[in-house]
Amino acid sequence: MSEKIRTIYDLARLAGVSAATVSRALAGKDVVNSETSERIRALAKQHDFRPSALARNLRTRRRGAVGVVVPLGHDRGQHLSDPFFMTLIGCLADEFTERDFDLVLSRVIPSHDDWLIKLVDANRVDGLIIIGQSDQSDVLDRMAADYLPMVVWGGFVQGQVHCSIGTDNFLGGRLATEHLIARGCRNIVFLGNTQAIEPSLRLQGAQAAIRARPDIALVDTPAHFASEVSGADIAGFLDAVAHPIDGIFAASDVIALTAIQVLAARGLSVPGDIRVVGYDDLFLARTGVPPLTTVRQNIALGASHLVESLLRRIAGEPTGSVVLNPELVVRGST
Q1: Does the structure show a pLDDT above 60 at 52?
Q2: Which of 2, 33, 177, 184 is surrounded by the fewest CB atoms within 10 Å?
Q3: Which of 251, 158, 156, 255 lies closest to 202 in space, CA to CA?
């Protein structure tokens, strides 16, 4: 019976060479004599030997895994089941699977500023993708100053240290509000938690759209307004608005569709009585009743940029932030 070859050490013993020579030969390194390389590869094929991914990672000091982290400092009640998170994480998983990387997914409720340091020090992954800055931009900036393999999905703010990939949220907010104004809306409500950078920039874009329009009123929700908002939350806020509204700009499609349900329960039609615009262009925006007018983020393209940027950073190459253009998609809700 032939000897069972389980490790490169077994193969090295059979070939009469060092384990390092076997490793280089199987990796196709030119430093190994071609005749020796061919003999080692022939022995490996004869004994059906394939070096494990773990062994390759140990030799290259790579773990073959990427951390995907969702920090929820501004909205601790939000869950990973949020449709936007699930869509982006799915796109990332597809991209990394094609590159033989595993994903390690974490939902973090920051209670101290050391949460990111602990993730990095755990040394379980080759790099990190952070989904959303939440209210943790300062933490991200401090880590980015010393830790290269990290990329953030989120809004871009001048002066930030960390590398971010995301849509121009300011422009998206302006496009949404200008569309409502063009549809005749004069009393507009913004629904979203502005403690996080992205909805804050969307609100700023909405404010810019009405800055030169004294005939337009824009009311925004308080900063503690949750992302996973309930119909009761929206109903309570709408009741507190002093003037009857005719337009809603929501910071996400989920919030927009929840608002439409609240309005329907009150006997108000969309877009007949109130026009509604969302943000993201998730699949559910197209299937809502009515189909939702929204600001599209190209999530698949964003995921591709995140992956390419992180892989370059893992290889030691700095990369800059990327700001993608949003697109207004007009459907039945306006």
Answers
A1: no
A2: 2
A3: 251
Amino acid at 291: P
Instruction: State the Cα–Cα distance between residues 178 and 213, nearest whole angstrom.
Output: 11
The angle at the Cα of 285, spanning 238 to 109, to the nearest 5 degrees, equals 70
Round to whole Å and give the CA distance between 251 and 75.
14
On whether the CB atoms of residues 163 and 306 are closer than 8 A, the answer is no
CA neighbor of 255 nearest in space, from 210, 220, 301? 220
In order of start, what are the domains of the chain with their CATH numbers? 8-60 (1.10.260.40), 65-167+299-325 (3.40.50.2300), 169-296 (3.40.50.2300)
Side-chain-side CA neighbours of residue 189 (13 Å): 24
Side chain identity at 2, as an amino acid letter?
A: S
For residue 54, what pLDDT band results from cuts at 50, 70 and 90?
very low
If pLDDT is split at 50, 70 and 90, which confidence band does 63 have? confident
Q: Residue 151 to residues 93, 101, 133, 196: CA-CA distances in angstroms?
A: 15, 16, 11, 17
